């Protein structure tokens, strides 16, 4: 495929069958229960976040919020920041990201490479804390533009206009769509689009479950729910432990040759859970699992080497999604 | 056998510091009622007049009970219930 420039090559990522991980990939004794991976690492900076970043910046330009030289501020655990920094570099904006200190070294290096400035937020509290710090800075710097992926409709719209149509075109018989739950943009956008075309499609969220450090200081009376989140779009929601996410990430490599990031393991875990339910009910299922990024940015976490127990211990306290 | 309930750090003041406690009941509501007898004050942090509190997430065997039957969700021996504060993920990698 030929494109005029890098941004033009956004999206149109492959949908790849997972014949070895699917319970019943071809019709045997029962109905087919198949899994399909949408490989979002095939985007310009290597993650699904390129879609939201591009749409959010385009909308802000349209709304007259951004002029050459403007500063974009964003709370991010990494990928969104990297995507924003790339687009900003091409469009002439400065980027400042607020990122929890317990995120991988690769993300920091990539952000700096694209010219973003990093403000570290405390590890305890994870992304909640990054959001809080960014909101505070935004109040002090009204001249900076916070695109705010957790509440920006262009984030969900990116998926309504691109990811959703791509999935449906490639797999009209889709029964389930499974993706990670962070800003909720992917699930809200793809979910709404697919529902309009098939009201019975099941939209399933896989949410990362971290260890003590991340939840330790969270107060249950003042949690955080992204403004984009609309519970009615989801069919169900799974909380996936680091151990399960790691195990599935390795299975992706071993069984299908796919080197994905750790959140993709969590998504696969939830997808396999839905597949098992379909098998038990004797129902056909074509389940799309969205793989948000590749494994490259997580090599330094040790997720891919040694035993699973060692990898899990190394991952304790780190944000992997 | 009983139902295992995992308690987040912030609520362990009600469980004498225990990370997990056990309880019985045929629904989540009954389970929370049972826990309240030994861990006074815990139930009010999880539930208000309208049901589960907004920033509390409860999972039955890893599935969010809001998408099951909420407080009426049936539970049985051997199940694991996890209570967590709502946090911003970055789940689709990285917010």
In short:
By secondary structure, chain A is α/β, with parallel strands linked by helices.
Task: Give an overview of the whole structure.
The complex is a heterodimer of chains A (321) and B (95). Chain A is α/β, with parallel strands linked by helices and 321 residues long. Helices cover 40% and strands 17% of the residues of chain A. Chain A has 10 helices and 10 strands. In chain A, the strands form 2 sheets. Chain A has a 6-stranded mixed sheet with strand order 1-2-10-7-8-9. A 4-stranded parallel sheet of chain A has the order 5-4-3-6. Chain A is globular, with a radius of gyration of 19 Å. Chain B is of the alpha+beta class. Chain B has one domain: Ubiquitin-like (UB roll). In chain B, strands 2-1-7-5-6 form a 5-stranded mixed sheet, with helices on one face. In chain B, a hairpin with a 2-residue loop joins strand 5 (56-60) and strand 6. The longest helix of chain B is centred in the middle third of the chain and has 11 residues, at 28-38. The chains are: A alpha/beta (321), B alpha+beta (95). Chains A and B meet through helix 4, helix 6, strand 8, helix 7 and strand 9 of A and strand 5, strand 6 and strand 7 of B.
List the SSEs and their pairings.
The complex is a heterodimer of chains A (321) and B (95).
Chain A lengths: L14 E3 L15 E7 L9 H14 L8 E5 L3 H13 L2 E7 L4 H9 L3 E5 L4 H15 L4 E2 L6 H18 L5 E5 L4 H13 L4 E8 L2 H4 L20 E6 H15 L5 H20 L3 E7 L16 H8 L6
Parallel strand pairs in A: 2-10, 3-4, 3-6, 4-5, 7-8, 7-10, 8-9
Antiparallel strand pairs in A: 1-2
Chain B lengths: L2 E4 L13 E4 L4 H11 L3 H5 E2 L2 E2 L3 E5 L2 E2 L15 E6 L10
Parallel strand pairs in B: 1-7
Antiparallel strand pairs in B: 1-2, 3-4, 5-6, 5-7
- What kind of sheet is the major sheet of chain A? 6 strands, mixed
Q: What CATH architecture of chain B do you see?
A: Roll
CATH class of chain B: Alpha Beta
Helix content of chain A: 40-55%
The N- and C-terminal alpha carbons of chain B lie at a distance of 40 Å
Q: What's the average pLDDT of chain A? A: 92
| Radius of gyration of chain B, CA atoms, in whole angstroms | 13 Å
Number of strands of chain A: 10
CATH topology of the largest domain in chain A: Rossmann fold
Instruction: Look at the structure and name the CATH superfamily of chain B.
Output: Beta-grasp domain
Q: Provide the CATH architecture of the largest domain in chain A.
A: 3-Layer(aba) Sandwich
Helix content percent band of chain B: 10-25%
Structural class by helix and strand composition of chain B? alpha+beta
